[in-house]
DNA sequence: TATGAATGAGGTTTCATTCAT
DNA sequence: CATGAATGAAACCTCATTCAT
C-alpha cells in the first residue's frame, strides 16, 4: 500500500556510522541519568555521561522532550519484544503475570517504564503517543482469559492501570523485593478467576 | 520566678489574624498549584495565585521544601481526621475500602496525596517524616480483619503500598471515574477473604 | 503648631523612658552584630539581638545608614572621653601611644572603630561626618611633641592615617596580640625623636 | 605510557581562543568593578561591564567566590613577578621599600590587593589559600637585612602586617599621594637600622 | 510607640537552547 | 558532524523599608 508520507515521520536518513553510535550512547546515558535523578535532570549531565558535548545531544534530539520520547520508544520496543516472546513461548495462563511482574521489576530500576505506561491510551506530555505496548498486553490478557486463568470481565485498560499503579508505587515508595511480591500477589489474586485456594 | 517570655522562643506564637489568613491562602494556593503542575512549579506562581508578594510566601515558609512539607502536614491532618471518623462510625468491614477509595479519589484531584503516602515508613524528601497516616490505616485494617472481611495475612505495609500505587496511577494515568472503580475493585477483590461471590 | 521644624534637627524630643531604653539596647546590639559580621549584617539580626521588633529599629533609625552613623557617634564619644582623661592624667610623652594602642586593641574587638577612623577628615559614606576624634588626637600629639617624644614634622593626619591602617590591619588580618605589639612598636619607633636606644 | 586523555579530566583544557578572551575580559571587568564598589558588587554588574551575558560569567567562574579567588590569583601573579624582578635587579637595601610602596600605591587603585594581603598566613574566605606573596616578601626582607638596611629583629609577618595595614588604610581612608608618602616614611623609619640621620 | 507582616527590587545560580569554531 | 562557549529567562531566596494592627 502506498499511502502518502505521513507528516510525522521522523526517521529516513541513513545516519553515518559514528553518528549512529553517538545516538545510541546518548540514549543509553539518558536512560540511566533520568532513571537516577528523574526527568528534571539536566541535559548537560546526560551529555557528560554519554561522553559527548552538549551540542551533540541537541543535534540528535532537538529538544529535551524529544530525548525523553526517544527513550520511551526505545524502551517500548524492548518491552513489546519481550511480550512477543512470552506470547509465543510462555504458559498461556501465567504469561501475563510474568510480563506484569517483569514490568514492575524493571520500574524499580528504571523510572522511565512508569512514564511509558502512564501514556498508554492517554494524551501525552512528551510530544508523541505510544500505543504498541497496550497491544502486547491485550494479547497476553486475551490468552490468559482463553485459558480461563483471568476473570473475563477484566479489560486491558484495567491491566494497564494496575501496571501503571504498581510501577509508580514500586518506584516512589522504594519498595523492596518482598513488598513488591506481596503487592503484586494481591493484585493477581484480584484478577484471577479462582480464589487462591 | 516567671520571667517574661525569653526573646528566643521560636515555636508557638499565635499569628496575627491577617497573617493567619495569608498563611491559609498561601497553603491553599500552593496545594492547587502543585496539584496542577507538580512540585517543580515555581514559588512565584504560588504567590501570584495567593495574591501576595513573593516575600510573603518566604516569610511563612522559608524554603520551598518547607512549603511542600506544610501542605502535606495539612493534608495529612484532614485525612487522619476522616479516618478517625470512619473508625468510630463506619461499617467495620468496609471502612477501610471506603477510606482507601476516598484517598484515591482525592489523589485524582491533588497530586500531593501521593507524595504523602509515598513517605509513610520511608526516608523523607521534604524535611520531616510523617507517620500518623500509617497508624490510621493500621487501625482500619485491624478492624476489617477482626470483622473477617480482609485476609489475615495482609499487612499495613501492603495496604500502604497498594494505596500509594493506586494514587500514583490515578494521578499520572489520568484515570476517569469508571477506571478508578474497576481498578480498585480488583485490588479489593485481592484483599478480601471471600471471593467476590 | 508653633515654629516649623527645621529640616536638619534630629534631637529635640524628650524620648519616653522606655523609648530611650530601646534606643540604647538597639545601639548596643547593632554594635556587637556589626562587629561580628560586618556592616552587611541584616537589620533583622540587630532587632533580634536587641530583643525588639524590626519596626522599632526603623522607628529609631529610619535607615540602616542612620544606624551605622549612630553607632559611630556613640563610639566616638567614648573614645574622646578616654582621650580627654589621658590628656589630663597621663604621661605627656606616652599618652598618645597609650591611646593609639587602645584604639587598635578595640578595633581587634570591634570592627566599627576602623570605619570611624576612616572617616576623620574625609568624605563620608554614612551620612554625617565626624571630626572630634581628630581633635583629641591632635591634642595628644601636640603634648607629646612638646615633651619632645615625637618628631616635630609629624602631623595629625599622619597619626590618623597610621591608626586607621593599624586598626584595619588588626581587624582584617586577624592579628594576634603579639603581632599587634610588634607592628605598633615599629610604627612608634618611626614616630619617635630618638632611636630605640 | 601515553594513553589518550581520559574524558573526565577537569583541569588543563586549553580554552578556545574566544573563550580565553572572554575570561580575560571578565576578570578585568571584575577587578575594576570590585575595586570600585567592593566585593559586594553584583555579578550582573561585572557581566555588564565585560559586555557578556550573566551566564557567561558563571560558566567561567561557577561561583562568585570563584571569581573573587581568580582575581586574587591573577593579581598575586603580577605582584610576585614584580617582586622577582626587584630581587634580581634592584638595590638590595631598598628593594623591599620599593616593593612595599608599589603595593600600597596599587591598593589605592585596586581594593583587591588588600584582601590578598590579608590572607597571607591566615584562614581564607575565598576558597583557596594564597601564600606565594609571603615568600616574595620574605626574600626581599632577607636581602635587606643582609645589607644591614633593616633591623634584624623584624620578621616577615611584621612586614606583611604593616603592608596589610597600609593598604587597607590607603584604600579606606582615601589617602592622597602626599599622605601615602608620609605614612610609609614613618613605617620605614621604624624598620630601618639607622635613625633617619 | 511597638509590633511584625507585607512588599518587591535585586542577587546568585541553573539550564535549555543557539551558534561560532 | 561534533564541539563547547554564549545566551538569557527563570528559579530560589534575602533584606531594607513600609504600614496595618
Could you write a compact summary of the structure shown?
Four copies of one chain form a homotetramer. Helices cover 67% and strands 0% of the residues of chain A.
Report on this model:
Chain A has 197 residues and is mostly helical. Chain A has two domains: 16-62, Orthogonal Bundle (Arc Repressor Mutant, subunit A), CATH 1.10.10; 64-191, Orthogonal Bundle (Tetracycline Repressor, domain 2), CATH 1.10.357.10. Helices cover 67% and strands 0% of the residues of chain A. Chain A is elongated. Residues 1-11 and 121-129 of chain A have low confidence and may be disordered. Chains in contact: A-B, C-D. The C-D interface holds C 40, 114-115, 117-118, 122-123, 154-155, 157-158, 160-162, 164-166, 168-170, 172-175, 179, 182-183, 185-191, 194-195 and D 40, 114-115, 117-118, 122-123, 154-155, 157-158, 160-162, 164-166, 168-170, 172-175, 179, 182-183, 185-191, 194-195. Chain B binds a DNA duplex (21 and 21 nucleotides) through residues 15-19, 22, 42-44, 52-56, 58-60, 62-64.
Q: Which tags fit this structure?
A:
2 domains; 9 helices; elongated; homotetramer; mainly alpha; Arc Repressor Mutant, subunit A; disordered N terminus; Tetracycline Repressor, domain 2; DNA-binding; 197 residues
Q: Which range best describes the helical content of chain A: under 10%, 10-25%, 25-40%, 40-55%, 55-70% or over 70%?
A: 55-70%
Biggest sheet architecture of chain A: none
Q: Give the CATH H-level superfamily of the largest domain in chain A.
A: Tetracycline Repressor, domain 2
| Head-to-tail CA distance between termini of chain A | 52 Å
Poorly predicted ranges of chain A (pLDDT <50, ≥5 residues)? 1-11, 121-129
Amino acid at each position: 500500500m502506498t499511502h502518502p508520507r505521513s507528516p510525522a515521520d521522523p526517521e529516513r536518513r541513513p545516519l553515518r556510522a559514528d553518528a549512529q553510535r553517538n545516538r545510541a550512547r546518548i540514549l543509553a546515558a539518558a536512560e540511566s541519568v533520568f532513571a537516577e535523578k528523574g526527568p528534571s535532570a539536566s541535559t548537560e549531565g546526560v551529555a557528560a555521561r554519554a561522553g559527548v558535548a552538549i551540542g551533540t545531544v541537541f543535534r540528535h534530539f532537538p529538544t529535551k522532550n524529544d530525548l525523553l520520547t526517544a527513550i520511551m520508544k526505545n524502551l517500548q520496543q524492548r518491552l513489546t519484544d519481550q511480550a512477543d516472546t512470552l506470547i509465543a513461548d510462555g504458559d498461556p495462563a501465567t504469561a501475563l503475570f510474568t510480563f506484569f511482574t517483569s514490568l514492575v521489576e524493571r520500574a524499580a530500576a528504571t523510572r522511565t517504564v512508569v512514564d511509558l505506561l502512564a501514556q498508554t491510551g492517554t494524551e501525552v506530555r512528551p510530544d508523541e503517543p505510544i500505543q504498541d505496548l497496550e497491544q502486547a498486553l491485550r494479547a497476553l490478557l486475551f490468552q490468559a482469559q482463553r485459558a480461563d486463568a483471568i476473570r473475563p470481565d477484566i479489560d486491558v485498560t484495567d491491566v494497564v492501570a494496575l501496571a501503571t499503579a504498581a510501577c509508580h508505587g514500586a518506584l516512589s515508595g522504594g519498595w523492596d523485593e518482598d513488598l513488591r511480591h506481596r503487592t503484586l500477589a494481591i493484585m493477581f489474586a484480584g484478577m484471577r478467576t479462582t480464589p487462591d485456594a
